[in-house]
Amino acid sequence: VPFRFDPPGWAPDFDAPGRERWHEQMARSARSNVAQIVEQLQAQDPTASAADAFYVDPTETDIPANASTVAVTWAGFPKRLLTLAGGDRDLAHQHAEDLGTFDYAQGAEFVTASGQSIDMPSRQFQDEYLEWRTDRVDGVPSRVTFTCEAYDYWEELFAHDEKLVVDRYRELLGRDDVTADDLRVPEDVFLAAGGGPPGQLAFRAGTYNPRNRFNTSEGIVHLTHRANSLGAEVNLAAISSALRKDAAGRDVTGEDANRLTCCGAFGDPNRNSDPTIGAAANNVARSGKAYTLTNPVGLYIADFDHEAVTLPDGSSAPREWWRVERGRAQTDDGFERIMRLVFEVPADVRGAGGEPLRAGDLMVRGAPLERGAQLAELVTLHLMVSAWDAPERRAIRAACETTCCVGGPDQQVLFISDSACAAGTGAFDDLLPDGRGAAVRAGGAQLATVVAPDGSAAQPVLVNLELDRFLAGGSR
Amino acid sequence: MTDWLLDGEPELATDRIQGNVLAGFFTDYQLFVGLRIADAGRARRWLADLAGEITTVDDVLGHRLLARAGEETREPSGVWLNIGVACSALAAVGAPSAFDDVAFREGLARRFRILGDPPSDPAGWPAGGPGEHRLDVLLILAGPPAALPARADELVASARAGGLEESYREPGSTVPGRGIEHFGFRDGVSQPGVLGTVGGAPDRPITRRSIPDERAVPHAGPGKPLVWPGEFVFGYPGQGNLPRRGGPVSRAGDNDETTAFALDGSLLVFRRLRQDVGAFRRFLATGTEDLRRQGLDGMTPERLAALIVGRWPSGAPVTRSPDQDDPDLGADRDRSNDFDFGDDVHGDRCPLAAHIRKVNPRAGPSDVSVPLQKRLLRRGIPYGPFVSENPSEDVDRGLLFLSYQCSIADQFEFLSTDWMNSPRRPAGSGGHDLVVGFEGAEGRRRDFDLPRPGGGPPFRVSTTEEWVLAEGGEYLFAPSTAALASLA
């Protein structure tokens, strides 16, 4: 039976032609990922081919029956936000649900062709492939909803069957006023730098708008942060398979996941997710194993520490108060594929005084539940790879593509760069040969540079600031 | 020795940091004494007066230099003294107590459920809790066994005059085990090294370096990464995103007064962990049978125990000696620690849930990008008779667990709740830490997986039995001698 890519979590959304469409989309990305790896290896050894890549396109190569599944797990609360907050967890919690355009660039704005500002925010700090929203009644948390469904899946779904997407929104949000037009980009939307005229086209008129109000200010259906795409995740899980060496020819390994990420430029070294996924994939390759992402390819909620949420009497909140609304908690291979998770106290549960118990009446690890961020700290995510021994593959080691410079609070924010860093800001002095010069790139492949109208790139200042200073600046 | 230094390693105030924090007492005999405050006003003065009697890092290092030169015995001839104070006790005596760390503020009796501990009533704990064994203050005495009780009596007498009552006393000893804990395994093999130099000696690193500086993550020796001191002592750069560049300076509280008071201090976790050797052995027997039934013909109780720990009794790691113990390897401190799991992603050589992988994933799979932010300085010592002295399985024996760190919530509790007690973290799967992990959920079932050679679902042993019983302790603050003296 030829290999087929199933929709994430085996979601029963697409009809048969739609499933075919999804398969084709994923197959294209597998092909292009292999091509990208081969290109990197060929820079080292011109004879390198797909047969040397530890990442395998499953539509080309059969997965052996004895392949075993490895889960790669990471914490769902955004590490970069914590870094921006200077390690102040309360400050990070306070702003974790803020909507904005920080995922594009500091001060980025969306404008129409005529230059009129248009509000298309994302959950701008939630960049670990987990986003959440806290619903409140009279200011008190009543429900926290988590999703890890990538927006590119929903884009494909909308392009294939608008009505189905509208139905899903209505079901998941429990409201019947969602229309297809609400979910569409009304007119061409451009990026603009700090009040400037339109630059690069960001969203094409008539296509699906992942940052629509039902998925941002009024509800949550799937991921919105620019970096939270399935394509990006698959790409980094694939290209991080390349074995790496520094300028002196020494191995660069997952021993320091951030260093490997800065060397391979395969993600954002400030997150938990990207370095963790990259280091894990690289470790698999270093073990001499070939691998591919396990079908159905996706990002999933792996677990939540439900015992950490306690009732006023000190006992743990029942696991059943965490409801899986999309994906599967029970699977044949034992690895959870949860895609939408809701925490809510059932309506019939009463407090000691007989009044309805609210989520906000509970404690999380000893502190009153005031924000969804506290629950996000309990959630872990994972993706799975199928791996098998591949002794025939040559261990070609590619040179580093990039390095990192530091900035931000306590010089803790890492910027991927392919040039020398400014004095005193080099994170690693041995990844690239000395004197290699080129323009500084914005911090990671997932970040668009804001292009000014004259075609020049705005300064990549994206995360080079302290959170409270950024917020005080009034930038949305 | 090749004592290189990184740029920016801070000079540590080793003349005021308590000795057990950074140098570690590591004596064969120790005595723990608990005190309960009866009169807060007088207790404050007594604590201040004690400052001059506290053994500092410099004291311990000075002794070690003499011992190395042959001018002193390995064990100290006098009694060393360190102290920890609970948050509620700091508040009671009017000392700054606005610490950020929620775990420290609440204390162990309000946190033990979070740790998944077997149900117990803190009022009945033999150490700590709200009852008669309350630990407002913990004194750690280390030195010659004959001198310890007399020194304890002297301190208790002075404490009584100073408004404190003795609430707990328990001796710890590594003899005759000498580094072997009660389940029979060498303990404390792997400790992180600490970056920074000894006070007044800018060329002398606090952790001596036995290998050249040529790893991406600086290492003092094989398997001994160097961690920035702010992970363990307040007021120094902590472990940030880059191993060669210090991260944010560790602060105790938002409140300046508390942060100043906490400078050069550390948070101390004390847990009395009773070990039921009989239950552990019974599990090894039934678990071995279970695994044999599943097709693992060569399984033995000794091998299963080594896989659960990740090391053989001698300390030889299963990842380097897969089939049997290798006492020569175990005795070699460098070789027995020279491995990193980076090429063992399935746990083929060392199971993913082996204790040593759970608490220290090294370069192997981990769900945080900087696992060095999750290290502790462990200073525990066994209590009770060793099996070799008293083979009975019913006696009270175990570990007086101590760890120093700057965040109990993000370090000690994280390791317990997020990694040891989780069936899939940090490595993605593999089961629970069967040595000291708990499952807090109803049924308390813990699993342990061994990969099936050639692939397929893993072999699995499960148990609802528990052989470590958490019987109290406390979360404490180990102030600098200067902070203690400031209470005068």
Write the SSE topology.
The complex is a heterodimer of chains A (476) and B (488).
Chain A: H1 16-42, E1 68-75, H2 79-84, H3 89-95, E2 99-100, E3 108-112, E4 122-123, E5 131-137, E6 140-147, H4 151-160, H5 162-173, E7 189-193, E8 201-203, H6 230-239, E9 243-245, E10 251-252, H7 257-264, H8 273-286, E11 289-293, E12 300-304, E13 309-310, E14 322-328, E15 337-344, E16 363-364, E17 367-368, H9 372-376, E18 379-389, E19 397-399, E20 403-407, E21 413-417, H10 467-472
Parallel strand pairs in A: 9-19
Antiparallel strand pairs in A: 1-18, 2-4, 3-7, 5-6, 6-15, 7-8, 9-10, 11-18, 12-18, 13-16, 14-15, 16-17, 20-21
Helix pairs in contact in A: 1-6, 4-5, 6-8, 7-8
Chain B: H1 19-22, E1 29-37, H2 40-50, H3 57-68, E2 80-86, H4 87-92, H5 102-106, H6 108-111, E3 127-128, E4 137-142, H7 148-161, E5 164-173, E6 193-194, E7 219-221, E8 224-227, E9 237-239, E10 246-249, H8 256-262, E11 266-275, H9 277-293, H10 301-309, H11 327-331, H12 355-358, E12 377-378, E13 381-383, E14 398-405, H13 408-420, E15 446-450, E16 459-463, E17 468-478, H14 481-485
Parallel strand pairs in B: 3-17, 6-8
Antiparallel strand pairs in B: 1-4, 1-5, 2-4, 2-17, 7-8, 9-10, 11-14, 11-17, 12-14, 13-14, 15-16
Helix pairs in contact in B: 9-10
